[in-house]
Structure formats: C-alpha cells, structure tokens
UniProtKB/TrEMBL annotation:
Domain PEP-utilising enzyme C-terminal span(s) in chain numbering: 542-894
Organism: Streptomyces achromogenes
Alphabetic keyword roster: ATP-binding, Kinase, Magnesium, Metal-binding, Nucleotide-binding, Pyruvate, Transferase
Highest classification ranks of the organism: Bacteria, Bacillati, Actinomycetota, Actinomycetes, Kitasatosporales
Enzyme Commission identifier(s): 2.7.9.1
Stated name of the protein: Pyruvate, phosphate dikinase
Top-rank lineage group of the source organism: Bacteria
Similarity remark: Belongs to the PEP-utilizing enzyme family.
Stored Pfam families: PEP-utilizers (PF00391), PEP-utilizers_C (PF02896), PPDK_N (PF01326)
Length: 906
C-alpha cells in the first residue's frame, strides 16, 4: 500500500542568500536583485524577503497566510543571530527597514518604512551604540513620521508643518541644523500628532511595528497611486508585491556617512561616465524625495575616495553581470559602503537606443537581445519635435536635464489643476518644488514637469523617464510658491498660474513663453535629410539607424502604409513602407469633386447617373496613376468607396437654414431643395451600420464598376510606361460571401474589358476587408471568393463591442480606464480576447480554404507596438499604418520576431 504524502507547504519567506535575479515573480525585483548581489559577494546588509505569493493570499483573503508569522519569526531569529543584536532591544537595538518590491519597478508608488525597532526604550541604546545622540533622535522622528503617514494613515503635511515650525523656532533652514534637544521635542510633537489623528499611541513594541509595516506594504499594492501607475505602465494588477526586511545601515551618522543613487551610464543620454547623486549625512529617502539638493556622484571621490573607488568597481561588476545599465542605491555608514538595491535602470528613449548599440559593440549582448532593449514607444518619442535652437528665446533658468523632450504649456502648481485643465484641452506644465507619489495624476496629465529641487534620481526624474515625459529638475534659481500659485524667476519676474512656459528636457533650460519647435533629427533621418555622423544628434541617428537595420533583418511581418495620395505614399516609402495597405478612395471625392458626387446622388435618371460617373472616371484614374507611380513595384491596396453617401452632402441643419432663408427672400433655391430632400432620404439613425461599403456598390449601379475601371486603366497606363503597378482591389464591409461574389463578377468583367481595349494583361488581386463579426465567423466561406483579407480592426472593434468610437471615448472611456475595466482603450491596443480571437479564427479559417490567402491589417492597431506583436503571433503577412508610425511598426515587427521571454526592460 503506497504511503500518502502531504504536499509541501508553500514557502513564504526567503533569506537574501537563498534567491537570485531570476526569481522576480516570487521575490519581486528588489528582493531578487538583493539576493543576486548577495550571491556575487557584494556588501549587502543581511535580510529576508516575504514573497509575492504571501501578498496575493493577503489581498485575496484579507488575512496573512497562517504560516507567515512563524516563518518571519524564524528568519528574524536568524537575522538577530547574524547581527549579534535583537530587534528593538533597549541597550543594543537591531533596526530594520520594511520595503516594497514588485516584479516591475514602481518608483515611489508603494510604501517603505525605515528605522523599525526604535522606541522610547531603545532610542537611547541606539545613541549609545552610535555615540551620537542627535543621530538617534533624528532616526526616531523619521520612523514616527514615516510610520504615521504610511501605516497609520496620518496626513504627512502635519509632520512637515511641525518640522518646518521646529526649524523656524531654531532659526535654521535645513534639517541637519536641528540638534538632539530639538529632535527630542519633535518626537514628542510627532507622537501627539499620531495619537490625535490615528486615535492610538505610536506602537512601542518593535515586532508590532514590523508586522503592521508588512501589512501596510501589502495594502499599498492596491493604493490609488499604485493602481494608477500600473494602468499607465500596463503592469498587471494581479502580481502583488514582495516585502523586503533588511537590517538598517545608516547614512545619517555624520559627515563620513551618506546615501546616494548611481547609474552605470547616464540614464538621460546613455553616455558612459560617473552619473548619480550623493547626499552626506542623510538617509536614502532624502535623495529620491528631492527634499535636499544633492551633489554629483563624482564629488564622492573627494569626500570619501575609498568608498568611491569601491563603488566604481561594484558598478562595473554589476553592469557586466546584468549586461545593461544598472540603477544602484547605496549607503555609506562611517566610511563603510553598503549596497541597498540594484535594478536594470529606467532610461530615456535616446539613451535606450545608444546603450543597446554600445552593448553590442562591447560584445555584452547580440543584435537579438539589443532589439529587446528598445521599444516602438521609445522610437515614437524620438520622433517628437524639439525646440528651434535659432529661435529668439527668453531663458530664465537652467536645471538638470532629467528626461528629454520639448514641452510647452501653461504653468500649474498642483496635480488637481493639471488634471482639470488638461481635461479641458489645455496643455500644462506641472511646476513643483519637488514631486511626490501623490502628484502622479498631474504628472500624467502634464506635457512636462519642472521642479526647483532634486536631481536625476529624484522622484520627478525617475517617474518622468519611465513615462517618457519631459522633465527638468533642480532648477534652483526658481522660487516656487505653490500656496500662492506662482514662481519667481531670476530678475524678479513672476510667473503666475496660467502663464505659458517652455522646458527643454534635453538641456535643462527653462523659458518664458512659447518656444517654436522643429522636426526631430530622427524624423529628418527617416525623411532622408540627415545621415548618421559624429555629433550628439547624429550619434542618436546612428543608433536608431542600426537598430532599424537589425529589426528589418529579423522581422517576418511586412509593413505597409495607409495613404490616399501620392505625397503621402512617397513619404511612407521614405519611412520604409513596403506598399500601401489601405488607400481610402472616399478622400478622393472631396474638395472640388464634391459637386460631381452631389450630382450622382441627385441623379433622377440613368442618363444623369452615367454622366456623373463618366465625369468622375478620369479623375479617379489619374489618382491611381499617381499612386502606382509613387509605389512602383510595391502593392497598392485600394478600398472601394466605403462611407455613407450623406457624408458627401451638406450638413442637414446648415442646408435647412439656407433653404429657409431663400424661401423667406423669395430667391431661387431649387438645387438646395433637392439637396435637402436627398439628405433627408439618405439620413440614417446609425449610418456606420447602414448603407455603406459593399451595400453602396450593390445599390448604386455603376459606382464600384467605375472605380474598378479607373484602377484597371491606370494600371494599364503605368504598364505601357514600363512601370510595375501592383494593384489590389478591396471590397469593404462584406458580411456574406454572396456580396463579394456579385461585386467580384462585375469587377472581373470590367478588368477583362480594359485588357481587351488596351491589349495589356493585368493581374489585379481582389479581396475584402474583414470588419464585421459575421465576416470573421464565416471567413472560410468568404475566402472562396477573396485572394486576400485585410482586417479593418477599427470597425471590427466597434461592431464587436457595440459602441461608436466617436461617441464613447469622450463619454465613458475615462471612467472605464479609471475603474480598471479597460487597461487601455481597445481602439488603441487590440482587444486580444474579443476582437483578437476573431482575427485569429478568421485567419485560420481563411487559410484552410485558401492556403495562399494573403492576410493583413489596416486599422489603427497596425501601428500600435503591442498589437503588432499580436499580429505577428497569429500569422498575418503585413500590418498597415499611417506614414509616421511605419518606423515604429518596423521596429516592433523585428522585436516580435526575436521576442525572448527572458527579456523584460519595462
């Protein structure tokens, strides 16, 4: 009889010596990397990590796992033995930090508590241990302040106001000028604030402090700012956060101590060198909060050369180990260096491209891995305009270039106003002394962020870089007064809320008024006006050029353009388009030709209709001749007329007024009256689901055959001129194969007539758009009459979801995004579960019927990075998008072809 074995209970706590960098799902990014650094033999303070699985149990049930307390106790005992002291004991206290650490970096979005273990009983023991009474009381007031705000929910401003009052009373301006006696009083004040606001005393039991802090970190995963950040960065909501309990090391023990953040390369430019910030006599939160202005990391060589040299060696070790830019947090405690965190660092778009090519040249990564280090979203950022360096400007300040871009907007001084004005259509610049996680809403809404404090590692800088948002930090010349909603610039000029300013995140310069912009050098490169070279702009172009070459060599998906005229087609070709995936012929019927369309709609007899079509034919033919010439040798997919006919007629209200005025004045108005009658006749409650697309071709005799004839004659003319036209005729809004068969039969007949008349053999492919659910569901039948499918995902999204894009985006999409119903608009990124499943099943069914069926997509999703990956996965042949999105689609198609599950540089 076999023995029944109990399944192994899950393990919820790991010592830093037990994990590694590949356990991010379980230990979170911070915990996995602390373990990795420990394994590398780097100086990491001992500690342990509570897993994301424990967090998930807590979030699901509201209670911590039953085994968690005992596991934490066992690891705490081991930590106390290793450190030779006990948590919070009176004479020789062990203090710990409790820090969040999700799989993906979420800077400042979740909670951290330092100095846990301090109490009225142990603070004097810490003072004796450190030989510094001021340090002990400073650490205690920090604990009460962080614990009160983070764990007990006390308004953080109350602590800040008490701290400011203490400095004012002492007549000092910085925290470090407060003495031990002042800090003792401040501790008493802080404890009173906690008692009044939280309704309880500040906990004196060190284990209670730690347990409450762990729960607070778990709870912060579902805090408003964390959820908003995850939606912004498209981080899944079900991952949970790990919790890292780490023995404290102190950077606030005097001038031979300090804390800093370092980058192995410049996160703004990608250049190699010594980059980062250092702050003497401070704890880590002081640096990232930007509350005190730091010194450049290079200054550490003068301050503490031994620690500086050791740090440089560690940075080299970490970059070679991770094979990427590393972001490092460190503390020096009385001349001893400790590593508190490392992670693959967030970087600007330009830095991402430069670093990827540098690492290839250094032999650290190959081209395939390099493609995973850049994204289409970053490339799109590089294509944004920049300020015109020759423009007449009024520069008033210069800060730290924290995140590049050219941002212009009205100055606002709080997050609420930034969001409110932005929703009203205003472009705004969020101006703060320093930002904190509560400013995230405003940072998202703003065109750019400007702060008077902080450096490249401040909250504003790190979050802005992650979002690709323009940011200038540490502009110390600016005097920001958020209460009076104004800032004073050198010379005494006052910028009031609502005044326009411009900030340059590439140079750190701040200007009054609106500075004109010029095209990006990357766009000039794609346009053929700039070539790779040696200066800084050309260095970026060189990096982009190389990454695009990598992508083009690797990708399977071809990239076409949505273009309706020769000018757009030529631009698309310069941007790398491999044909036209959607030419919307309705755009050719506007302007001067609208009158001919009106005649067609108003035609009462077959003769009048034929006359209108005959007049339109040569104009259509010339359109196609120009397109075929611009795209010679490449496919051109031409969609026959799609929108409802009433779109070519005047607005019903405007026309009614004209008729009424003419009648009141007894003026001739016969034509306007006929137009009005036609508008009423063609009026539909829901025109997007009415008489349009293939239905028009079947109801209006001669309309589609005129267009097919124009295409065929244009192709014949180009062939006679030794050109290579490759026309594809696309029938829109097909819902059943019978519709396509009827139109196809008429089209084949017209093509045969043109071939006979010109003596030219034409090969015109005929296919259809799949943009209705029924078409997707019957794709196998439709493929019998189609040589290609092009998925019209804009209409397919509307018809699958049952809502109109023009109406719903303004009415309820914001609420749906805020409530998490949408992670992102389904019109922006394809809804894989709904619309995507129809695309996948239709593609499979179509190819079962016709194995050589060509498959593409021509909705806006064709240029969306995430959607491109989906289209690659389901086996489409090409995507089509607007000309300016072609480089993005090319890059993402290359990334999709080389996608590695092991790479994630979110």
């Amino acid at each position: 009889m076999s023995e029944n074995k109990e399944p192994h209970a899950p393990k919820f706590v790991y010592d830093f010596t037990e994990g590694n960098k590949d356990l991010k799902d379980l230990l979170g990014g911070k915990g996995a990397n602390l373990a990795e650094m420990t394994n590398l033999g780097l100086p990491v303070p001992p500690g342990f990590t509570i897993t994301t699985e424990a967090c998930k149990v807590y979030l699901d049930s509201g209670e911590e796992p039953a085994a968690l307390r005992d596991e934490v106790s066992a690891h705490l005992d081991a930590l106390e033995r290793k450190m030779g002291k006990k948590l919070g004991q009176a004479d020789n206290p062990l203090l710990v930090s409790v820090r969040s650490g999700a799989k993906f970096s979420m800077p400042g979005m979740m909670d951290t508590v330092l100095n846990i273990g301090l109490s009225d009983a142990s603070v004097q023991g810490l003072a004796t241990q450190a030989g510094d009474e001021r340090f002990a009381w400073d650490s205690y007031r920090r604990l009460i302040q962080m614990f009160g705000k983070t764990v007990l929910g006390v308004d953080g401003d109350l602590f800040e106001e008490a701290l400011d009052k203490a400095k004012t009373t002492k007549k000092v301006t910085v925290d470090t000028d407060l003495e031990a006696a002042d800090l003792k009083k401040l501790v008493t004040t802080f404890k009173k604030i906690v008692k009044k606001e939280a309704g309880r005393e500040f906990p004196q039991d060190p284990r209670e402090q730690m347990d409450l802090a762990i729960k607070a970190v778990f709870d912060s995963w579902n805090g408003d700012r964390a959820k908003l950040y995850r939606r912004q960065e498209r981080i899944p909501h079900d991952l949970g956060t790990a919790v890292n309990v780490c023995s404290m090391v102190f950077g606030n023990l005097g001038p031979d101590s300090g804390t800093g953040v370092a980058f192995t390369r410049d996160p703004a430019s990608g250049h190699q060198g010594v980059y980062g910030d250092y702050l003497q006599n401070a704890q880590g939160e002081d640096v990232v909060a930007g509350i005190r202005n730091t010194v450049p990391l290079a200054e550490l060589e003068r301050i503490d050369k031994k620690s500086y040299d050791q740090l440089m060696k560690i940075m080299e070790t970490l970059e070679n180990h991770y094979k990427d830019l590393c972001d490092i947090e460190f503390t020096i405690e009385r001349g001893r260096l400790w590593m508190l965190q490392t992670r693959v660092g967030k970087r600007t778009a330009g830095a991402a491209f430069r670093i990827a090519t540098q690492l290839v040249d250094q032999g650290l990564i190959d081209e395939t891995e390099a493609l995973q280090r850049v994204t289409g979203a970053q490339l799109a950022q590089l294509m944004f305009p920049r300020f015109d360096e020759h423009a007449k400007v009024d520069q008033v300040a210069r800060g730290i270039a924290a995140s590049p871009g050219a941002a212009v907007g009205k100055a606002v001084f709080d997050s609420y106003t930034a969001v409110k004005w932005s929703r009203s259509g205003e472009k705004v610049i969020l101006v703060r002394r320093e930002t904190n996680p509560d400013d995230l809403d405003g940072m998202i809404a703003a065109e750019g962020i400007l702060t008077s404090r902080g450096g490249k590692t401040s909250h504003a800088a790190v979050v802005a870089r992650g979002m690709g948002k323009t940011c200038v930090c540490g502009a110390e010349e600016l005097e920001v007064d958020t209460k009076r909603r104004r800032m004073t610039v050198p010379g005494g000029h006052v910028v009031e809320e609502g005044d326009v300013i411009s900030i340059d995140g590439s140079t750190g310069k701040v200007y009054l008024g609106e500075v004109p912009v010029v095209p990006s050098p990357v766009v000039e490169y794609f346009e053929g006006r700039m070539h790779p070279g040696a200066d800084d702009a050309d260095e970026l172009v060189e990096a982009v050029h190389r990454m695009m070459a990598f992508a083009d060599r690797k990708r399977r998906l071809r990239v076409r353009a949505n273009a309706d005229n020769a000018e757009d087609a030529l631009r698309a070709r310069r941007f790398g388009a491999q044909g036209i995936g959607l030419c919307r012929t309705e755009h050719m019927f506007l302007g001067d030709r609208r009158e001919l369309v009106e005649r067609l709609i108003l035609a009462d007899t077959e003769e009048e209709r034929e006359a209108s079509l005959k007049a339109l034919l040569p104009l259509q033919k010339q359109d196609f001749v120009e397109l075929f010439e611009a795209m010679d040798g490449l496919p051109v997919t031409i969609r026959l007329l799609d929108p409802p006919l009433h779109e070519f007629l005047p607005d019903i209200t405007e026309l009614s007024v004209r008729v009424a005025l003419a009648e009141s004045r007894q003026e001739p108005h016969e034509n306007e009256l006929r137009l009005l009658q036609a508008v009423h006749r063609l009026h539909e409650q829901n025109p997007m689901l009415g008489l349009r697309g293939v239905r028009l071709g079947l109801v209006i005799p001669g309309l589609f055959t005129m267009q097919v004839r124009a295409i065929a004659e244009a192709a014949a003319e180009r062939k006679a001129a030794k050109g290579d036209p490759r026309a594809e005729i696309m029938i829109p809004l097909v819902g059943t194969v019978q519709e396509l068969e009827i139109v196809r039969e008429e089209a084949d007949q017209v093509v045969a007539e043109v071939e006979a008349a010109t003596g030219t053999k034409l090969k015109l492919a005929i296919g259809t758009m799949i943009e209705l659910p029924r078409a997707a569901l019957t794709a196998g039948e439709i493929a019998e009459a189609a040589e290609f499918f092009s998925f019209g995902t804009n209409d397919l999204t509307q018809t699958v979801w049952g809502f109109s894009r023009d109406d719903v985006e303004a009415s309820f999409f914001t609420a749906y995004l805020e409530k998490g119903i949408f992670g992102v608009s389904p019109f922006e990124t394809i809804d894989k579960d709904g619309v995507g499943s129809l695309v996948k099943s239709a593609a499979e069914a179509g190819r079962r019927t016709r194995p050589d069926l060509k498959l593409g997509v021509c909705g806006e999703h064709g240029g969306d990075p995430e959607s491109v990956h989906f289209f690659h996965e389901v086996g489409l042949d090409y995507v089509s998008c607007s000309p300016f999105r072609i480089p993005v689609a090319r890059l993402e198609a290359g990334r999709a072809a080389t996608q590695s599950t092991g790479s994630d540089h979110r």
